[in-house]
Amino acid sequence: MLLAGPTETDVRAALGAVVDPELDEPITDLGFVRSLTVTGSAVEVHLRLPTSFCAPNFAWLMCADAHDAVSAVPGVGRVVVELDDHHDSDLINRGLAAGAGYRGTFGHEAEESLDELRATFQRKAHTAAMERALTALLRADRSRTEADVHRLTLGDLPTGAPTTAALLRRRATLGLPTDDAAPVLVAADGTPPAPAEAALFLRKARSVRISVDGNAHFCRGLLATRYPGAEADQTHRSSVDDVPLPGPTRPTIPLEVLS
User: What's the predicted TM-score (pTM) here?
Assistant: First the structure.
């Protein structure tokens, strides 16, 4: 039986599962997919990045993941994924076309493996997702405070909320429990902090999340500057900062610019 050819919608959905490892967002939402062409069973994808000097190992991860994701779409035959306008575009594109892998492409410049790099960003993504889920809960339920977070379990998070779903996906990636009785506030190895340290633990997680969100915002702006009109291809990720934390409002510190 012949398989029906893939559609652009199928391929774009597959690319939606590919994330920027540092920004923890799909490359489709970030606007990194420059073009997508489906001709019969053949698919050609061109990617673009905010700068020509984005880290080559990050660029390789996204290109290789995109190639794997598209290749797994039923009915897809020949796959070409190319990175445009990067200082290592020629090297990366040749390596992808030859199936040379990261080390085969970059030779002695390659690290031993990208597995640890990927694992590092998976742990960071979990930390950010955990903070988003807890902060969203604190802002929705003003009876709770940071002093309560060590008692919260996954069953306390709103079922079906985007922040809850995102956290569960990242916990599954790390092999952490996802049952309702599991504590929410844990390190990447599943260890919860001592109750007295929980609030500080959450605030440190918040600094990680703000760093991730800030970098994503910066990269979106760079991409739109480099490729005018690219902002039309970007999907905004709502922020838990849109709702203020409970507690007294702190006065704004006036900013004085000295000449």
Answer: 0.84
